[in-house]
Amino acid sequence: MCFSLCVSELRCNPGQFACHSGTIQCIPLSWQCDGWPTCEDESDEMDCPSITVDQRSRHGKESIDNRHSHGRSGEAPHFHAGSGEKSLPFSSPAHWKVLDHQCGGANQSPINVDRKTARRSSELGAFVFKGYNTAPAGAWSIANSGHAVQVNLGSDISVSGAGLPAVYNALQFHFHWGKPNGNGSEHQLDGNQYPMEIHIVHMHSKYTDIKVAATDPNGLAVLGFFYKVSDTDNTNYNTIIDGLQSVSYSGDSVDLASTFRLDSLLPSENLLSRYYRYRGSLTTPGCAEAVIWTVFEDPIPISSSQLSAFVNSVHFSASGQTEVKMQDNFRPVQALNRRRIYASKQASMNSGAIPALSIVLLLFPLLAIRLL
């Protein structure tokens, strides 16, 4: 019986190869047997004739830059297989370095924020939030980008201070989550993954084009906040939750019913000085290593029903395509390599880290005994 395979083939257009399993459904037929696995189960490279590395380089997938583009948001909207072909769902991050060489760089995000190895920095003080405490005039739009739910902001919202080298203007915020019974934050804290994470994307004030900013190591500043499940709804999220039903499919976009204070989405002001800092990248292709990351220590409470609204009501797929729910839309943690993680003046430091002076004091009695 070929039931599962035959059904898979029926969901793809002529000129496309149907992956046997996984969330990537259809890829261009020219990508089959080209030496670069794209399907999660690598079925596109099964039963293929052997090809050499030199032959593989002529198949074109390594020059995929023209198959994705960057919008004002600072993250690639989605993989597209080409004109008239279905888009590829957010998936298979292990192969991203094939799709875009920057995704295999040494300074990639997200990471595990390991507080045992973090260094305290006296430069990481309070943020200056401008425009966060007012509900601006005009409209904000909510959109399904094909890999996340994103809210596009207006002007006059910015952050500075806290060790940032400049003023950074807010562009948008978006969310990453898991499955109904699984966590889905991109970053981890001491190896712990949270149910969801929000990224508030800012661009250096000297730039007006996100593509130009993404070429500068100081071009972008992203604030990341974790979520935790609470017993009651967080009513500050009602406007966003209500908007989800209008952006169920990739490409959907509507204006929110109203704007609101951006800081109403965040932990209380006294907790915003507790954070960790490192240099990294965007977390979708092209993975530009142009981000000053701030990951905040204290999670935001939302109810299980609010989390479920994200996990169960939004799709990777566009309207009219085979429905693929948008779940696990996070990139796994990447190697820290030689980078350093810095803790703000008020952030917690893991008790597993023993200060150097303490080590000396612990060893001193042993040394004294040996000298007697």
Describe what you observe in this structure.
Keywords: Disulfide bond, Glycoprotein, Lyase, Membrane, Metal-binding, Signal, Transmembrane, Transmembrane helix, Zinc. This is Carbonic anhydrase. GO terms for molecular function: carbonate dehydratase activity; zinc ion binding. InterPro entries: CA4/CA15 (IPR041874), CA_dom (IPR001148), CA_dom_sf (IPR036398), Carbonic_anhydrase_a-class (IPR023561), Carbonic_anhydrase_a-class_CS (IPR018338), LDL_receptor-like_sf (IPR036055), LDLR_class-A_CS (IPR023415), LDrepeatLR_classA_rpt (IPR002172). The chain is an alpha+beta fold and 372 residues long. It has 2 domains: 3-59, Low-density Lipoprotein Receptor (Irregular); 112-343, Alpha carbonic anhydrase (Carbonic Anhydrase II), CATH 3.10.200. 14% of the residues lie in helices and 23% in strands. The protein contains 7 helices and 20 strands. The strands form 4 sheets. Strands 6, 7, 8, 9, 10, 11, 14, 15, 16, 17, 18, 19 and 20 form a 13-stranded mixed beta sheet that branches. A 3-stranded mixed beta sheet has the order 5-12-13, with no helix packed on it. Strands 1-2 form a two-stranded antiparallel ribbon. It is globular, with a radius of gyration of 23 Å. Mean pLDDT is 82; it is low at 1-10, 53-91 and 351-369.
